[in-house]
Amino acid sequence: MAFNKGITSNSSSKKKSAVREWFDSILFAVIAATLIRWLFFEAFTIPTPSMENSLLVGDFLFVSKLHYGTRTPKTPLQVPLTHQTIWGTNIPSYTDAVQLPQFRLPGFSDVKRGDVVVFNYPPELQHPVDLKTNYIKRCMGLPGDKLEVRDLQVFANGTAVENPPRMENEYFVATTTSVNEAKVFKDNGISEYNSYVETFNDTIASNDQPGYLVYTTVELAAKLKTYDFVKDVTVVKASKEISEPMLYPNSQLFKWNRDNYGPITIPAKGMTVQLTPENIALYGPVIKNYEGKDGVELAETSVKIAGKVITSYTFDQDYYFMMGDNRHNSADSRYWGFVPKDHIVGKAVFVWMSIDPAPTSFFGKIRWSRLFRVIN
């Protein structure tokens, strides 16, 4: 009996130090935050205007990993709660000495056309898939779709795709005089505008016409047209005859521009393509960079895998075509190609905070109307 009492007394007298309690609390919080970030939700912020006016620079949003299924980690040797570098430094936060096979847990939804999706930027080949820079765009093309942009309008399988409700185009606002930009543009929620006095393409009727280039919605463009100092509002778009060499697949075989793009067939798992010169230009980089094949060699008229020339190829995974809602100010699939399924991070679900980056008072910086706004 006395022996038992002695053990009880010694155990109760061993208390954790304050440092140990703090360490245990921090360790628990880091583990819990890491698991939540990996399995359920992750917070992101919008740094560029490529998704305006649907998402604004300074929006903070939650992205659901559950919708499309959580990916298992590919790069396990990483400082917790970091991405590519340790906070505030250029020191890498990971080592790719160990790379695990990546799987996707079951989700309750597939990626749908029109979803706002966060994904890893595919061309960033210097990082492992799960540590490439995070991008956010709207899915406009699904695996197997035949996608085309005709005169600004996106078509999928021959049918016009519904435009996002707050999508922005570029407009030339011809004016009779200079305007109070803060009053006219900023008060109307137009954050991107530049004064312009020279003709730059055939959509503007006369030379040396004063005015402004603005990025805004159809509704706000119509409102600008009602001002007495505005002569006309013209949508800026390229004609079919204009070719942009910077567009994907960066080949002289395709005479496309951002407003007239395609048609292009989006790769789907199990889809087989014949490797013609056109298909090599379109799908060669996909086969080499995203399909997990070793020893892929590309030439203009041939593809080799492990030294053997192949004349057709069957894709191992699905791909998607992503575009920004700010159609003339978005580096998207038109410029760098398809998004592989294993690069999909999650679905953007709602904005929980929005901070206006423009100089203003502390309380004026919060966009109260955008708090807890559902993303659609």
Task: Provide a concise account of the structure shown.
This protein has 376 residues and is of the alpha+beta class. Among the domains are: 18-139 and 346-376, Umud Fragment, subunit A (Ribbon), CATH 2.10.109.10; 169-235, Alpha-Beta Plaits (2-Layer Sandwich).
What does this 3D model show about the protein?
It contains six helices and 21 strands. The chain has helices spanning 2-13, 18-39, 181-184, 218-224, 277-290, 333-336; strands at residues 41-45, 59-64, 116-120, 134-141, 146-150, 153-156, 159-160, 169-175, 193-196, 211-216, 230-235, 261-265, 272-274, 296-298, 303-305, 308-310, 312-314, 319-323, 339-340, 344-354, 373-374. Strands 1, 2, 3, 4, 18, 19, 20 and 21 form an eight-stranded antiparallel β-sheet that branches. A four-stranded antiparallel β-sheet has the order 7-6-5-12, with no helix packed on it. The longest helix is centred in the N-terminal third of the chain and has 22 residues, at 18-39. The chain is flat, with a radius of gyration of 26 Å. One of its GO terms (biological process) is signal peptide processing. One of its GO terms (molecular function) is serine-type endopeptidase activity. This is Signal peptidase I. Its main location: membrane.
Entry keywords:
376 residues, Umud Fragment, subunit A, Alpha-Beta Plaits, eight-stranded antiparallel sheet, four-stranded antiparallel sheet, membrane, hydrolase, transmembrane helix
Level of helix content? 10-25%
Average pLDDT confidence is 90
Q: What is the CATH class name of the domain at 18-139 and 346-376?
A: Mainly Beta
The CATH superfamily of the domain at 18-139 and 346-376 is: Umud Fragment, subunit A
Measured by DSSP, the beta-strand proportion falls in 25-35%
Low-confidence stretches: 1-9, 198-207
Number of strands: 21
Apparent shape: flat
Order of helices and strands: HHEEEEEEEEHEEHEEEHEEEEEHEEE
**Alpha plus pi helix count:** 6
- Backbone CA Rg: 26 Å
State the CATH topology of the domain at 18-139 and 346-376. Answer: Umud Fragment, subunit A
Describe the largest sheet. Answer: 8 strands, antiparallel
CA distance, first residue to last residue: 70 Å
Structural class: alpha+beta
What is the correct CATH architecture of the domain at 18-139 and 346-376? Ribbon
Family: Belongs to the peptidase S26 family.
Transmembrane segments: 21-41
GO molecular function, one term: signal peptidase activity
Active site: 50, 137
